[in-house]
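cron nightly-structures :: item 1 of 1
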Amino acid sequence: MNLHEYQAKELLKKYNVPVQEGIPVDRADAAEEAYKNLKVQFGNNFAVVKAQIHAGGRGKGKIQGSEQRGVAVGKSAEEIKQIASNILGGTLVTIQTGAAGKLVNKVLVAQDVYYPGPNPVKEFYLSILLDRGRGQNVIMYSTEGGMDIEEVAHNTPDKIFKEWVHPGGGLLPFQARKIAFNLGLKGEAFKNCVKFVTNLYNAYVGLDCSMLEINPLFKTSDEKIIAVDCKMNLDDNSLMRHPDLEALRDISEEDPTEVEAGKYNLNFVKLDGNVGCMVNGAGLAMATMDMIKLSGGEPANFLDVGGTANATTVEAGFRIILKDPKVKAILINIFGGIVRCDRVAQGVIDAYKSIGNIEVPIIVRLQGTNAEEAKKLIEESGLKVQSAILLSEAAALVNKAVA
């Protein structure tokens, strides 16, 4: 589950992680009031307006139809109000959103952290995620933080450091000191960085994050270390332990079909192809998608109905797949183990009767528990469903349907 920047920062503060303070608003006049409050609190004339969407690259992204960036600095209440007005309600297009962009419903008016002082300011990069190959969390960090971190990783990978953390021991003090040292920090900034990294790792573990990225990690002119931006992903499987965090989910930022699929406990991911897939089991689903590509098609989705599929969930899967206008055929590939093939077949029949005329060809391959009964149900239904026994047969039917 993805969180907005302002939500992630509030959670980090509970773990004593210093952050750039800000006020989330959904109206331009409220942005003006937020600026005034920040000026009273921190005494700075400048403030930053940040679009709140579930995508990176906001600083370089632009609102469709204008030159307005997704992150902009203002130095007066009037200017902040105008920037917020330009962003709110607009569609922000970034390198991560694609051409469609994302609608901006909220902005964060944040304090200025680039204030002058006795020491130079500096931007770093730091993230924590799971290295599945090693079975350990890894802290990735660099002295080159900011909007061009992707180019740094591509052009100068030697500037990206990694520190692996053993799950049994957690982050050890010497590792936090090593990170601060490799970032080139000294004195008070060094001490503050050690505290920051330690508390940030505690937040990562305590909140059951799957990814936590701070970019930029910022050293202020008075040697403070703070999170200026934060991207936080929570492990969906851990939300049973965090009912308060589940309430932070912003459904408006998610694909509507994926949200609908979640209501039926369907594992669904929308793709850009032309063949809809309905499969039981993630491994078989991946193999089916490979087969579709080899047959000349492109998978339109990943849909795993799981081991508890019934007629209702199968019908729901059908409806979700058919909402995609790009779909030219639907392939149902079921291996009956826990889920019975006849139950899936009945779901196909019920979906046909409930939805009405389905224009796209449907190819059904059912093997395993009650496969014969399933085949008989479909043949006696009178529906225009093409059946296959071998995977190669299903591939040939797919190829014919999308040709």
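cron nightly-structures :: done
The radius of gyration is 26 Å.
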